[in-house]
Design brief:
By secondary structure, this protein is mostly helical. It contains nine helices and no strands.
Length: 188
């Protein structure tokens, strides 16, 4: 259950104000087909989470307990550092002739591949040995961060303190990741 909750909260936090939300905002506004865009979000988030969890299940048995903890610590630090980066508007995929669902699914899959939330799912699956819960939690976290953007459009981003949330989240994640790394290295 820890894997599910950690992945859900970490991925939700990692997506707040991120380039994925900006891409979804652009696609939802352009297509004005909420159902197709939401279906694309679900497919992309689930696929990325499954790939990460599968890789974590494959890597985990090859590492010792301290190495798995260090791997998780690095994924938490990576996500925390990513929250400090200034977010740029991604390519809005205006030249893609694939329709609302396929453009959303492929665009979000490509954009999310190797992103902080995906790396966090990988780290959690590696450490906990429970890739299914890590994948489910991560996918739910990403979906929970992106679907309200489709439904509320830019009103949501304008009403929440994105910069404050990202800064506080970065501080929490960097502190947590640092403590885990120090523990994994045997310095604490």
């Amino acid at each position: 259950m820890d894997a599910l909750l950690l992945a859900l909260l970490g991925c939700l936090l990692g997506e707040i104000g991120d380039k994925s939300q900006l891409l979804i905002l652009a696609l939802a506004t352009r297509y004005d087909r909420n159902g197709a865009v939401i279906a694309g979000i679900i497919v992309a988030a689930t696929t990325n989470a499954l790939i990460s969890a599968f890789a974590g299940a494959w890597i985990g048995p090859m590492l010792g307990a301290d190495a798995r903890l260090l791997f998780l610590a690095l994924s938490v630090l990576f996500l925390g550092a990513g929250l400090l980066w200034r977010v740029k508007m991604p390519d809005t995929l205006t030249g893609w002739p694939t329709g609302a669902f396929l453009t959303t699914a492929l665009g979000l899959f490509i954009l999310g591949f190797g992103d902080g939330p995906q790396f966090l799912i990988l780290g959690i699956a590696t450490r906990t040995g429970n890739p299914a819960l890590a994948a489910i939690g991560g996918a739910i976290g990403v979906i929970a961060a992106l679907v309200p953007i489709v439904l509320l459009r830019d009103r949501l981003l304008a009403s929440i303190p994105v910069r404050l949330i990202r800064g506080a989240g970065a501080a929490i994640l960097l502190l947590t990741g640092g403590i885990m790394a120090i523990t994994a290295l045997g310095l604490l």
